[in-house]
Design brief:
CATH architecture of the largest domain: 3-Layer(aba) Sandwich
CATH topology of the largest domain: D-Maltodextrin-Binding Protein, domain 2
Strand content: 5-15%
CATH class of the largest domain: Alpha Beta
Helix content: 25-40%
Distance between the termini: 36 Å
Shape: globular
Radius of gyration: 23 Å
Largest sheet: 5 strands, mixed
């Protein structure tokens, strides 16, 4: 395992709020002295903050260890002059001083299957790691083995607050039990979310102003139909050879998971929930089939989308070729995540949310990889869950007000986005993170079936559902039985 150099300086709490009960590491009874839901005005910015709801506490030097994926926003060794790194470091110093605890981050040697390395440790009841971080699907074997706390039972988490993500939790919960979540300090979870990126210069040449696209989002009119209409403008046989390939200009470019993410944004679910939070497989529901029919006819045809996951004769890496096409300005709309290399693009571009199915859809929905985009969970080997719960809430709360503003301003300062409107769009995107339980738990491997629809342009989900439904429902029911009532 790789280990970031750990700050081992013992930090004593300098000042405690008076009049409140103290929380010690082993305490389970704490009198909350701060009134949740009240507001206070922060003098430096004039911003109104909700109170954290956390009592004044001394955690007696408790060391909380985060294990698994390398997640930006958890821990930094020192200030570097980078605004986000410094903001994370300063947040930790503030909280460690205020509550008298220490943060350690230990990285798994295998980042693809990060928390698998902790499996035997947790099974043995060893309280070595208090928080696990990995893609949602990597938690499944822990959940099946009864090795994760139901985070709804943790004492200090308030999922109604904006430093957690209510819709995301509702997506991955099972029988009103929550085994994984995303907190406001997990910056990598933000940067790996899929969304459209529009070449604004090319769009302008085609008669579309990015300001109109932003306004369409604000007006609730950014839908699959409008998205498809935009994409259709961009495909062009540049060399006039009668073929459409990697040498031409494309209206839309993504990869298989990006196609699934587009469908999810328009309301598609592999598994939906009933009123009791019991999942059911919904791939063959009429609304699902109709949506995929529409996507296949408007977007996922060989003349409409260039897929980074396709095979092209004579091309060694379609991924690299796709990147070259974007850098040369030969893609109007791509669907993925912002990457550092985009700072060097010579053309202007706009960030937009994933389109809704229609104007009646109430919310936007955005997802990251079910395997790679990190979530967090608390293993049952933790001996003092109240203390861990307290620290997670404090980190999420303080990050929402001090780290995230720096995180967003850094997008502009480093030219990863080109205008304030894109920051507004990113805030919409990040606040609407959602994970489909059917994709995270991958019952029946229906996520792979969605990939096949994207790559083939043919909606065969009815046939696939008929062949896989029984095994998928059995897998789902087995897990539901294992987690109990």
């Amino acid at each position: 395992m790789m280990t970031k150099k750990q700050r081992m300086l013992s930090l004593l709490m300098a000042v405690l709020l008076t009049g409140g009960a103290m929380l010690s590491c082993g305490s389970t009874e704490v009198q909350e002295t701060a009134a949740a839901g009240t507001e206070t005005v922060i003098e430096e910015t004039g911003e109104a903050r909700l109170e954290s709801g956390l009592p004044a506490s001394d955690l007696e030097g408790y060391n909380i260890t985060f294990f698994g994926k390398d997640v930006n926003g958890v821990w930094e060794e020192e200030t570097t002059g980078d605004v986000v790194v410094d903001s994370v470091y300063n947040r930790n110093v503030l909280l460690e001083d205020m509550y008298n605890f220490k943060i350690t981050e230990v990285l798994a040697g295998n980042q693809e299957y990060a928390i698998t390395e902790a499996l035997q440790t947790v099974q043995a009841g060893d309280d070595a790691y208090q928080v696990l971080m990995d893609g949602g699907n990597r938690f499944v074997q822990f959940i099946q083995g009864g090795m994760m706390y139901d985070m709804n039972t943790l004492k200090y988490q308030d999922y109604t607050k904006p430093w957690w993500y209510k819709n995301l939790n509702e997506g991955v919960s099972l029988k009103n039990k929550l085994f994984m979540s995303v907190a406001a300090f997990m910056l990598t979870s933000y940067t790996q979310v899929y969304h459209p990126i529009v070449n604004a210069d090319l769009a302008k040449d085609l008669g579309v102003d990015k300001a109109d696209l932003y306004q369409s989002v604000r007006d609730g009119k950014w839908t699959i139909d409008e998205f498809a209409e935009l994409c259709h403008l961009g495909t062009f046989d540049i060399n006039g050879d009668g073929l459409l390939n990697h040498l031409d200009q494309w209206g839309f470019q993504t990869e298989a998971y990006g196609g699934y993410a587009l469908a999810l944004g328009a309301g598609y679910r592999i598994a939906d929930k009933d009123e009791n939070d019991i999942p059911f497989i919904s791939v063959a529901e009429e609304t699902s089939i109709d949506l995929w029919d529409k996507l296949c006819s408007l977007i996922f045809s060989e003349k409409e989308v260039f897929l980074a996951t396709q095979n092209i004769t004579g091309v060694e890496s379609t991924w690299n070729t796709s990147s070259t096409m974007r850098s040369e300005g030969r893609v109007l709309v791509s669907l993925g995540a912002l990457s550092a290399g985009m700072r060097n693009l010579e053309y202007d571009y706009a960030v937009l949310p994933s389109p809704k199915r229609d104007e009646q859809q109430e919310f936007y929905y955005h997802t990251g990889s079910s395997w790679n985009t990190p979530m967090l969970g608390v293993p049952v080997s933790v001996q003092v869950p109240d203390t861990v719960s307290f620290i997670l809430e404090a980190m999420a709360y303080e990050s929402y007000y001090s780290v995230l503003p720096d995180f967003y301003s850094n997008y502009l300062e480093t030219k990863l986005v080109r205008d304030q409107d894109s920051i507004e769009m990113l805030e919409i995107i990040h606040s609407s993170m959602f994970y489909d339980a059917g994709a995270v738990y991958n019952w029946g491997a229906f996520l792979g079936a969605a990939y096949n629809v994207v790559t083939s342009g043919t909606n065969n989900l009815v046939t696939v559902a008929a062949s896989k439904m029984k095994s998928a429902e059995n897998e789902m029911q087995t897990l539901l039985n294992e987690i109990g009532d």
